Automatic annotation (TrEMBL):
<keyword id="KW-0804">Transcription</keyword>
<protein>
    <submittedName>
        <fullName>AraC family transcriptional regulator</fullName>
    </submittedName>
</protein>
<keyword id="KW-0238">DNA-binding</keyword>
<keyword id="KW-0805">Transcription regulation</keyword>
<dbReference type="GO" id="GO:0046872">
    <property type="term" value="F:metal ion binding"/>
</dbReference>
<dbReference type="GO" id="GO:0003700">
    <property type="term" value="F:DNA-binding transcription factor activity"/>
</dbReference>
<dbReference type="GO" id="GO:0043565">
    <property type="term" value="F:sequence-specific DNA binding"/>
</dbReference>
<dbReference type="InterPro" id="IPR018060">
    <property type="entry name" value="HTH_AraC"/>
</dbReference>
<dbReference type="InterPro" id="IPR050204">
    <property type="entry name" value="AraC_XylS_family_regulators"/>
</dbReference>
<dbReference type="InterPro" id="IPR009057">
    <property type="entry name" value="Homeodomain-like_sf"/>
</dbReference>
<dbReference type="InterPro" id="IPR036163">
    <property type="entry name" value="HMA_dom_sf"/>
</dbReference>
<dbReference type="Pfam" id="PF12833">
    <property type="entry name" value="HTH_18"/>
</dbReference>
<feature type="domain" description="HTH araC/xylS-type">
    <location>
        <begin position="73"/>
        <end position="178"/>
    </location>
</feature>
Length: 190
């Protein structure tokens, strides 16, 4: 099964893109484009995904062969964009409207595929992403909890505080007291 488009799991940042590009180039493939979750190869050089999987796995990535897994990874990537949309849009779309618009399909379909593949709902995954963003912002010490809540579109600082405790098992003030707050990388969220 040769392909010109590899779907790759656990790519979450520009360094991941560069690493995958370098790995493929080193292996003799010249990708024409590498973006979060994908590597395009020239039509003249199709690759068997199973052949490059071990090399990518060593670097912490996985090749996705199943269409549902591919869609789930694409949803995760678009949810990263959604967090930025929440921060910058004067009247942000709901998660369901944002995803349905991006994928030109129903949120119900996306939700079913995501839940089945990731073993958690889109909503719970998004909450985990938001809490990791909260941890990041708290570790900088530049914003109050109310400012962070406003940026991430929580109804109040208290709502954010309650959700933070539910997800992390500790209060925001306990987290702040830690010398080295434990943060998770986005690819470890689910």
């Amino acid at each position: 099964m040769k392909t010109n488009l590899l779907h790759i799991k656990n790519m979450v940042c520009p360094r991941c893109v560069e690493t995958v590009k370098n790995l493929l180039t080193k292996a003799g493939y010249e990708p024409t484009q590498v973006t979060l979750g994908q590597a395009k190869l020239p039509a003249t050089a199709p690759v068997d995904p199973r052949a490059v999987a071990p090399m990518l796995r060593e670097a912490g990535f996985d090749v996705l062969l199943d269409r549902a897994e591919q869609l789930t990874e694409q949803i995760k990537t678009v949810l990263q964009e959604y967090l930025e949309h929440l921060r910058t849009a004067p009247a942000p779309l709901t998660t369901s409207a944002f995803l349905a618009d991006r994928f030109a399909t129903t949120y119900s379909h996306l939700s079913k595929v995501f839940s089945r593949t990731a073993n958690l709902t889109i909503e719970k995954y998004l909450i985990r992403m938001k809490i990791e963003r909260v941890k990041e912002l708290l570790s900088y010490g530049e914003m109050t909890l109310v400012q962070i809540a406003d940026q991430l579109r929580y109804s109040s600082g208290q709502h954010l505080s309650n959700q933070f405790r539910q997800v992390t098992g500790r209060s925001v003030s306990e987290f702040r007291r830690l010398m080295q707050p434990e943060r998770l990388s986005l690819d470890a969220l689910g």
